[in-house]
Amino acid sequence: MGAVVMVLALKERLSEQGYYWFNLPKSAGFPFLALVEHTNFVSPDHFGGEHILYAGDYLEPEHEHFRLSQVELLERFLPAFGRINPRFRTDWVRKTWLFRTAYAQPVPLVNHSSNIPAIQTPVSGLYFASMSQVYPWDRGTNFAVEIGRKAAALMTSAP
What we know:
Strand order of the largest sheet: 2-3-4-1-5
Shape: elongated
């Protein structure tokens, strides 16, 4: 699965309740899966007073969100912000950044567990740690930290 993520700098807080993370149902017409207002976790003071919002989704690489321009995608996303906060106005948006990648979410195939690469590679001093190695779990920060710690332990114990 690929990922399409738009990051926005807003002049106002979107979630009046101060929520950090929204999981949004596509069946309800939301154009993205996750809406995260980072500055409800880390103060806007760290971002020049701006409120930082992340709107992202995992999509098939053929999805139209990979082809739309940044402006076109923003136009698709704006009505959803009004559903979160009816006071939302488009002039709250100060800046946007768009990130897209065709490979972001591993989709393991049958028997994936027998194909997981070792952290320590055959090349001396070269280690490999990726989200494909956290199977059977899905990607996530806690699993990234865990695989990173395993890699670090191997590196520090190597002769």
